[in-house]
Amino acid sequence: MADLQSQNYIRRSATTMTPPTTRSNVEEVAKLIDVSRCIGCKACQSACMEWNDLRPEMEEFQGAYENPHDLNPGVWTLMRFAEYENDHGDLEWLIRKDGCMHCEDPGCLKACPAPGAIVQYANGIVDFISDACIGCGYCIKGCPFNIPRVSEKDHKSYKCTLCSDRVAVGLEPACVKTCPTGAIMFGTKADMKDWAEERIEELKERGFENAGLYDPAEVGGTHVMYVLHHRDKPSLYSGLPDKPHISAVIGLWKHVLKPVALAGIAFAALGAFVHGIVSGPMEVEEEDEAEARKEMERRAKS
Amino acid sequence: MSRPKDAITRYKTVSRLNHWLTGLCFVLLMLSGLAMFHPYFSWLSFLFGSGQWMRAIHPWIGCLMIASFLGLFIQFWHHNVWERRDTEWVKNIDKVLAKKEDEVPEVGRNNAGQKGVFWAMALLVPVLFLSGLVIWEYYFGHATSIEAQRVALLIHSAAAIGAILVWIVHVYAALWVKYSMRAMIRGWVTPGWAWKHHRAWFRELVDTGSRGPEPNPRNRAP
Ligand code: HEM
Ligand code: SF4
Question: Model-level pTM?
Answer without folding.
Answer: 0.94
